[in-house]
Write a structure and sequence with these properties.
The chain is of the alpha/beta class. It has 7 helices and 14 strands.
């Protein structure tokens, strides 16, 4: 479904991503590990078309279609949904209204909010005064309303308290595995996801098919995500740059 080919990206005058290549097959989940500042969030933002991220070379393909220069709203219409690590506060926009807009009026905000215990937040401005866990749940509700085919999840476990992490993790699992109808069409193989994680804690709740490690703006290695996580926990990211697992071609 998603294919990144030799992608190099600059932010301002700084080259943040260098010759990135990875893929996420239809119906599968890939996990991207990496230390803070390695360029993980930049990659997701570039895939979504956000901000001042300048593609110097390479391609972003969705279902074989080149979306490298496509505007954000068209990428969303094609079925890409993003859960940001630090989404902005939307003063003056109630969560109920956001869910109605995101779901094109086809979802009941009250029913949806009830799945994550967010009923009392529907009349509040999006993310304003929310805790870390509440922001994550707000983002998940918006994704559930959008129902994309390709999920981009930026450190979903970051800033979530112990009481909320299980609820957030189970919701992500349900969204990714919840049927094959998405973005107004049927996906024969099901939904797909690219999940960024620093700690790997999200793997307690989702099954991942492929893992990548991003260090210093480049993919250092790829392989079985749980084997990669064991290597990272045992030896740290510096050792993973020398990757003893499957080298990326």
């Amino acid at each position: 479904m998603l294919e990144i080919k030799n992608l190099t990206v600059e932010v301002g005058d700084r080259r943040v991503l260098k010759d990135i290549s990875l893929s996420v097959m239809s119906g599968s989940t890939s996990v991207l590990f990496g230390p803070n500042g390695s360029g993980k969030s930049t990659l997701l933002s570039t895939i979504m078309g956000l901000g001042n991220y300048k593609v110097i070379s390479g391609q972003i393909l969705l279902d074989g279609k080149d979306i490298t220069d496509m505007p954000i709203h068209e990428r969303a219409q094609l079925g890409i949904g993003l859960m940001s690590q630090r989404p902005p506060n939307l003063v003056g926009v109630q969560l109920r209204t956001m869910l109605q807009i995101t779901g094109h009026g086809k979802v009941d905000p009250s029913t949806l909010a009830g799945t994550l215990g967010m009923d009392r937040f529907l009349s509040r401005d999006v993310n304003v005064g929310f805790s870390g866990g509440e922001i994550k749940r707000s983002e998940l509700l918006q994704l559930a309303a959008q129902n994309p085919c390709m999920y981009l999840l930026d450190e979903p476990e970051s800033g979530v308290d112990l009481e909320s992490i299980e609820r957030v993790g189970k919701m992500i699992h349900d969204l990714i595995t919840g049927g094959i109808t998405c973005a107004g069409r049927r996906e024969r193989e099901g939904k797909s996801a690219l999940v960024i994680t620093h700690t790997g804690q999200i793997l307690d709740y989702i099954e991942a098919d492929r893992g990548y490690v991003l260090c210093n703006g480049t993919i250092s290695c790829a392989g079985n995500p749980r084997e990669l996580l064991r290597e990272i926990r045992a030896k740290g990211y510096e050792e993973c740059v020398k990757c003893r697992l499957v080298r990326v071609n």
